[in-house]
């Protein structure tokens, strides 16, 4: 199970790195800028979580798999950009997979570090959405998670299910999978059906 | 006194959350984006301070009052936006109250964590201005504290007075109140009278 | 040697603070905004490194030299802006010196904190480029290190040479100097000769 989780974590790293590298190419960054943005998108959420729970140094700086997988994704996007653009929808789906996996593994790590239910849910959500926020800040645009369809809400729901399962003493692995499926399902349906949360009415933009 | 301080801290959280939520509505974020921006504006300064003094996990992730107060402020702004827009000036005044409270409580926490005078003043200022900086970065604009009337200077003055009082062994509570009043007074007068620091002359913008 | 390194570190702080202050004046920030941006550009890389290796509180908040040197640089730029604009090229050269010094001292601190080779190289690079990234984020523009000529690559090369020298048990001081020279040389040649990394072809910008 532990190995399986690490494998899923690296899949999440890979797809988030692809999203960062794609934005870097669009903003006409050079090869190294693209790799930096891929790595930042993939690991920033996890690094913020590790700093906030005191897990120093963060695993993404100690375990070379995260850097390797990020660079692989960045090189792939850089040299096969037209193929990636064509894959547009599959990338969004993989991104939803990454969001789901990071939200539940982040929640689990926060619980293991002794945080209470609220802190664990917040940190799980932060692990899921943090990488995309840093990616968008570095590209000087408003983070899409603040504007797009049920993105952060999906991460919140998955994280909350993990905490709920833990407090009911349900077995760990199925709870994690259920949380990840809930998050992925919400996000996937939001993409497919264009579900949106309401926007307040304002006289100025 | 301790309970009184916590109450004031939560008032500061509330008014900063209102400033974040207001910006979120103006940028046409959805309901959840508004809540995230409200929470980020309210707690980022305190979280940065806690990370830098090693108070892990940060109090805003452990004590649910901060999240609750932030969400309450965010919902209020979202569903009563026109009323908040009309209250414009009172909000700026409350914002000055929050700045003053966070600056002096942040300085006190940094001194209690063993930092020297300079570090405590810097961290007090950071606690006061950090939330607004994160709020503006997430909204992809230059932080107003870097551009507006005596904002950071007021926080610096309040923090410095707390450190000065501590080094002269003055009683704690009155020193805190004096620091908060100094910060609030400077900021309030700067708003009312349009006081500004000088801007250097540059041939290009 | 230790005193020599600290002196070089403060030179790096000074030149990075000049870059921050110059950007602040161009963005028409007031005096205090200019000082804040100077300090942020000078110390953010080092503070991020200290947080990630658990060196709390960060040295830049404890040792007043960093604040003093940053404010000195900020005041100089504010009151002598036209002279600084004329010095344009020398500033870029000093900036390359700062990048080189921060990259090798950051790598050394990370190794001393027990990080492995990969983590030390990443943190050395982050120490070198972090200040400029925060500076540009605060000014609401895409960090130039993601777009300009061999900037982060030069920091990476210098950091990697320090780690290589350490793993071969070469003497410390010459290794540091060699790493700094490699970083400075790459960056300087990139500026002078307009060396750039490739940019991927994209149908949209």
The oligomerization state is homotrimer
Sequence stretches where pLDDT stays below 50 over 5 or more residues of chain A: none
- As a whole number of angstroms, the C-alpha radius of gyration of chain A is 17 Å
Question: What sequence of helices (H) and strands (E) makes up the elements of chain A?
Answer: HHHHHHHHH
Q: Give the count of structural domains of chain A.
A: 1
Strand content of chain A: under 5%
Distance between the termini of chain A: 49 Å
**Strands of chain A, total number:** 0
Query: Main β-sheet of chain A: number of strands, strand sense, barrel status?
Result: none
Of all protein chain pairs, which has the greatest interface, and how many residues does each chain bring to it? A-B, 33 and 32 residues
| SS class of chain A | mainly alpha
Estimated helix fraction of chain A: over 70%
Describe this structure in words.
The structure is a homotrimer of 205-residue chains. Chain A has helices spanning 2-26, 31-53, 59-62, 64-79, 81-86, 88-112, 117-138, 151-167, 172-193. Chain A has 205 residues and is mostly helical. Chain A has nine helices and no strands. The radius of gyration of chain A is 17 Å and the shape is globular. Chain A has one domain (2-193). Chain A binds chain B through residues 51-54, 113, 115-116, 118-119, 122-123, 133, 137, 140-143, 145-147, 150, 152-153, 196-205, and chain B through 24-34, 36-37, 47, 51, 56-58, 61-62, 64, 67, 77-79, 81-82, 85, 137-140.
């Amino acid at each position: 199970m532990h190995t399986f989780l690490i494998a899923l974590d690296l899949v999440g790293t890979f797809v988030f790195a692809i999203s960062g590298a794609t934005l870097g190419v669009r903003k006409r960054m050079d090869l190294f800028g693209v790799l930096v943005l891929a790595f930042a998108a993939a690991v920033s959420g996890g690094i913020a979580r590790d700093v906030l729970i005191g897990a120093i140094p963060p695993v993404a700086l100690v375990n070379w798999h995260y850097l390797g997988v990020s660079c692989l994704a960045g090189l792939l996007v850089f040299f096969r950009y037209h193929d990636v653009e064509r894959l547009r929808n599959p990338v969004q789906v993989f991104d939803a997979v990454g969001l789901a996996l990071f939200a539940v593994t982040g929640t689990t790590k926060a619980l293991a570090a002794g945080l209470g239910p609220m802190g664990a849910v917040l940190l799980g959500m932060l692990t899921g959405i943090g990488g995309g926020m840093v990616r968008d800040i570095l590209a000087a645009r408003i983070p899409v998670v603040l504007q797009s369809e049920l993105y952060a809400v999906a991460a919140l729901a998955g994280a909350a299910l993990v905490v709920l399962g833990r407090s009911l003493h349900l077995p760990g692995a199925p709870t994690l999978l259920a949380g990840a499926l809930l998050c992925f399902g919400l996000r996937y349906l939001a993409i497919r059906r264009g579900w949106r949360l309401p926007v307040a009415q304002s006289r100025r933009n």
